[in-house]
Amino acid sequence: MTPALSFAPRHHDSARGSCPKDHLAVVLHCEPLMRAPVEIDAEPGAVCLRVSGTLDAELSAELHARLREAPARGEDGGAIGLIIDLRKLRSFDDAGYKRLVTAQRELAAAERRSAYIISRPRIRAMIFKVIHITEDERARPVVSVDSARAWLAERGSVSYAAESLMRAKELLERLRKRPINDADPRGRTA
């Protein structure tokens, strides 16, 4: 619904520090926010679910139901991956998080490949935790629709956990090979 604006004279109240006498105050009247549904689009080889708002018990239950309803196989018999777009998700609560863990466990048991598109650091941390707890090697956090499609298309690729471990080992190896300057703890030379 569209918020309605109204203008009303507001008198000065020195105790509350409100507007000076005879000034107008803008009052914004809003209807309660209606929850945006989980939107679903089908594309070749994938189903895309877009979620917005706050992942609470109600929204996570809707997402969970939509994940269960998403087809696992296409008309050609090929597996259909899941793209779960959380870029418009603002926040989450404990109930929403727990329900998402349950949903991801079901996806792992069904061997469904999934990509979570995330942009907010707090949501990213939650998804990392969900993937870690469920130990689902077929789930991956990504930053764009294109990277989600690429992940879903790479059927025989290395799991996210294995790839992260390889990158961490490469970084440690590079740090070990780097010359250390004892005079400056940051490794800079004078």
Keywords, please?
alpha/beta; 190 residues; disordered N terminus; 37% helix; 5 helices; 7 strands
Offer a quick outline of the entry.
The chain is α/β, with parallel strands linked by helices and 190 residues long. 37% of the residues lie in helices and 26% in strands. The protein has two domains: 1-34, no CATH class; 39-169, Transcription Regulator spoIIAA, CATH 3.30.750.
SSE layout and pairings?
Blueprint: E1 4-10, E2 23-29, E3 39-43, E4 46-55, H1 57-69, E5 81-92, H2 94-109, E6 114-117, H3 121-134, E7 139-142, H4 145-153, H5 160-177
Parallel strand pairs: 4-5, 5-6, 6-7
Antiparallel strand pairs: 1-2, 3-4
Helix pairs in contact: 1-2, 2-3
What does this structure look like?
There is one protein chain. The chain has 190 residues and is of the alpha/beta class. The protein has two domains: 34 residues, no CATH class; 131 residues, 2-Layer Sandwich (Transcription Regulator spoIIAA), CATH 3.30.750. Helix content is 37%, strand content 26%. It contains five helices and seven strands. It has a five-stranded mixed β-sheet, sandwiched between helices. β4, α1 and β5 form a beta-alpha-beta unit. α2 crosses α3. The protein is globular and about 55 Å long. The termini are far apart.
